[in-house]
Amino acid sequence: MLIGDLVTLREVAWGDLAARQEWFRDPEVTRYLGWLDGVPVPYLQDDSPGSLEWTVALRDSQEPVGIAQLGKLDTVAAQASLGLVIGRKELWGKGLGADVIRLVLAYAFQVAALNRVWLTVESRHLKAVRLYEREGFLAEGVLRQARQTQDGLQDVTVMGILRPEWESRHSHGG
User: Which residues sit opposite 145 in a β-bridge?
Assistant: First the structure.
């Protein structure tokens, strides 16, 4: 279990599945996840054996509120992708996502000894892009019209952070 200021990241439990089903029935929650007609587009799925997935739970109550993933683990290049969903809309903008990112990056760089963590985000999802930038991710490029969504083809921004960049921010309290 990883413990942050607002959330914990814990193993997925059977009891979390009902909450996940509820979140994923909400078009607002799935809008930027690349889902079509309530089904995830295969582009986003990561069933590789090198994936870690946690339930994001409120620290005090342990109530499930989201999902975090360190996926597409590449041990040769020492990198993995970050996935994050806060499924409870009333908790959006309350700092939970930033807390999750800090926990996952600390795990990735300190425990898993990775050199790079990357992610993809729909370029139009400006709140998410700003969050990732605040946590140290840099835009590495744009994949034009790379994701089919319920709103049509969307550009996807690839963002990444390297261990030395994270260490520099971490050692200065950033």
Answer: none
Model pTM? 0.88
The model's confidence at residue 44, banded by pLDDT at 50, 70 and 90, is very low
Residue 126: give the domain boundaries. 2-171
* Cβ–Cβ under 8 Å, residues 77 and 115: yes
> Domain holding 109: CATH number?
3.40.630.30
pLDDT in tens, 131-146: 999 999 999 999 999 9
Rounded distance, CA 168 to CA 157, Å?
Answer: 24
pLDDT at 42: 47
Residue 68 CB contacts under 8 Å (≥ 6 apart), including other chains: 9, 53, 54, 56, 82, 83, 84, 100, 103, 104
Count of domains in the chain?
Answer: 1
